[in-house]
Amino acid sequence: MKSSVESLPLLQGVIDCIDVGTLVLDANERVVLWNRWMDQHSGVLGAETLERSFFDLFPEQRGKRLEAAIGQALRSNLPSLLSQTLNRWPLPLYANKSAAEKGERMQQQITVTPLNLGNSERYCLIQVSDVSAAVQRENLLREQAVALRSQTLLDDLTGVANRRHFDMAIDREARRARRMGTPLSLMMLDIDYFKAYNDHYGHQQGDACLEAVASALSTMQQRPADLFARYGGEEFAVILPDTPADAAVMMANAMCRKVRDLRIPHQASRTEERIVTISIGVASSDSSNAGEVYELINAADRALYQAKACGRNRVHSL
Fold this sequence. Notes:
Strand order of the largest sheet: 2-1-5-4-3
Number of strands: 10
Mean pLDDT: 90
Helix content: 40-55%
């Protein structure tokens, strides 16, 4: 059986083959083993580290989480994991020479484990993993998830909020209005005689008309909580938190004027000017006594129906 002295070269050879930074500290926090991976990524050769204090090599770790972890392992026999999220790059380790010249440290995950060798001597094993690729993948997945979420909340044609976004927002704002005792107004609007427009000009031109109207109206909501959404087909909705009915009606009239000012020709319209116009129904939680979301939506729908029944190109409120 080999003695412990004879086993050291074998042990060094083994840890040199490991693709993880590996070093062992004695009870006085001095380096007794240091593998080739650490040579490559720290720029410090193992021969220069042996019997040196870990904190002479990495003085910036004094008072940091890694020092506490080493202390726990050597004095309390407790292992530690330094999460990459909270300790992104504690040691000056670099993927390559170019990264070192730029000062771009690799993302690291560090484990500190007490070593029980069956005698009274205490040691701890420190392992450093390069998690840069995993972090990059995680960031990419997070960005993709944000982009996907954004796409699922936007209407494909017009780029404004879609029906799913509207449903989420109206429920949230109705609950907030009830909790805070503040008014909540809702507009339901659609483009007058849009089916006739499609039949006369074709669906491509109809899509262009929807885009133009949505683009013009979506810029009129200035507050972050206001939401302009495509409700379906040629119908749109506007959520106006903290807005009483009279202020909502003023905005609705301004929106009607905005669309008329676009002067989009509509030869199939029955309106006098033969241009694209909109009709708007307005309801408010303080005027329709809407206790639930569906009641507020139904009130705005009824007001829109009245606006159409009265000749279109106008605003009606309940």
